[in-house]
Amino acid sequence: MDDLTFRKAMGKFATGVTVVTTQVGKDIRGMTANAFMSVSLNPKLVVISIDENANIKNYINVSGKFAVSVLNEEQQDMSAYFAGQIEETTEIEFNWFNNMPTIKNSLVNLTCDVHDTVIAGDHILYIGKVTDVCISDGAPLAFFEGKYKQIQALVDMK
Fold this sequence. Notes:
There is one protein chain. Helix content is 18%, strand content 47%. It is of the alpha+beta class. The protein has four helices and twelve strands, in the order αβββββαβαββββββα. The strands form three sheets. It has a seven-stranded antiparallel beta sheet, with helices on both faces. It has a three-stranded antiparallel beta sheet with strand order 1-11-12. The protein has a single domain, classed as Roll (Pnp Oxidase, Chain A). This is Flavin reductase family protein. Pfam families: Flavin_Reduct.
């Protein structure tokens, strides 16, 4: 199979959308990621998958920490910005949670210490030990077939 076929097949898996953030000194970095999942309840572990060429990788390696913000259905602009789809620089007013920058009004903000890393093809899997979590109500921003979706739109596709 070619790369396009594989990518199309993986796009059939509906996911939520997150923004991963970290900080080194006063320098904050963030990126949109839908490659996120929980791994373990005891200890509480999650995993994020970061392209080996992504700039944020170096910041996570130095800081040893990262935060994950699970976006709500009204935060497509945040996802687009941190995915590099918006060219202009915007001053982001972060929510500071457990001394880490997170996206305000997200469904979930969680902070992690890097527990382990695994090289997997052209990505690095960062396994994070969750140090704190904050939960809010709302509907998630979803991603399906390469496009943002709202959960109701996915239900209506039946």
